[in-house]
Structures are given as C-alpha cells and as structure tokens.
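Support request, please re-run this one:
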Amino acid sequence: MDEKLPYRNLIEGDIPPWVMRFIKGTGKAINHYRMIQEGDDVLIAASGGKDSLALALALSIRRKWLPVTYSLRALMINWIEHPIPEEYRDKLHEYFDALDISFQIKDESQFPTSFRDDFNCYLCARNRRRILFSYAEETGTKLIAMGHHLDDLAETTLMNLCFRASFSTMLPVQEFFSGKMHIIRPLIETRESVTRRLAELYDLPVIKPVCPYDQTNVRARLKPIIQELSHIDKLTREHIYNSHDFSECLMDARKNDNR
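Re-run finished. Output below.
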C-alpha cells in the first residue's frame, strides 16, 4: 500500500478538485439550511472515525474562505470500557491543533447504571447524546455538529420504514429543548464514499472505537442493500434524500431567537 499523503497538505492549500468539491458540498448544505451563522460557537461531536474527522477538516478549511466568523471546538467521548489506544490521544490532539479547533477527550462509562445491564445501539447513542448535551450546556454551546452523511440518512430511512412503519429519517437540522440547542449535520448531502476516500488517501488519525455491535446491527446489514440498489440507479441515496420534506429544517431566525 502506498504511503498516505499528509493531511497538512490540505490545510496548507494543496487541495485536489475532488476534495474541493467535498468542502464546497459541505458548505452548500450549511448554506441551504442556514446551519452556521456569524458568531456561532460550534461543537463537533468527534468520534475519531473518518466521518467526524472529515467534517472537522471541511469546517476548518471552509472557515478560512468566508467573511463569516464562527468558532469550532470538538469533543470526543472515550468509553472507559473500550478506550482508544493512548498514542491516538496525541495524534488526535495534533490533528485538531492543526485545524485550529479546540479539542477535548472526555472519558465516560459506556454502560451507566441506569441501563440496568441492558445495552443496544439506541441506548449507546442516547448515552452519547446525553453527554454531548451536558457538555454543550456547560460551555454555553448551542450548535452540535455531527458527522452523519447521506448513506446514514438512507440507512435510517429504510430502517424506520421497514422495521418501524414510519417514513422518517435523521434531519439536517434537529431542534432540542424548544430551540435552545440544535444538532446540525453538514455532511447530510455527502456520500460515505467521499469520507472513506479521504481517510484512505490522507493520514487522518482515524481511530474507530470498539463497538460490540458494529458489524451485526441493522444499520450495518442495510449497507450492502443500499449498495445493491445503487447498482440499479446510481442516485439511489439522493432519491431517498429528496423524498423527504426538510423545509422545516431551515434555521431561519433560530426559532425564538435562542442564540
């Protein structure tokens, strides 16, 4: 395997056309849904995976081009039961420092006592979100950016439709606590293949936290189905995205002006 390119090349402006399209596509989604505005403080939910690292890269580089000023910080939740290797702490800190993004790793229990020995993907995601919300509240942050992409949206749509009899999915912008906080998903129009290519070609410090259900959960089993559908129509993911009405996701006036 060829040696990977330094991610610092991208930060310094050596950006190939396909990466430029990725960054501009991220900006297009941000602008369409008015996700980030002047003076915002954005918390990136950094899992250490390829998607959240690609999101941080896009938001950081995009920020250099804009007349709009916004601040970025990132939080990684490190499960005590499945900790990341110690050397990756330094690599991640170095990566976010290079992006000029304040970065913190928070060690937390993946299995809180409130779970009563029960565990599944829903409970894990809820626990992670609870920690993110608590941190955002402590720091006065109103926007939490997550690295969910177009494939995630397509998988969630099929999951809800086929197993919950609900035509719904994750939203580009999701309001919480009567508008006091919003989750934003700037990669919602970006295919997973783009973030995968970025991680394959550049030396992003990708560290995938251990998940006991990573390869057996419903989402993982839907991936090859969506891939097969895309062989019939290459725009399958985009068609699923366009089938939803996201008009209520426009962050106009931030609803009740809770900035």
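The chain has a mean pLDDT of 91. Residues 52 and 147 are 5 Å apart (CA to CA).
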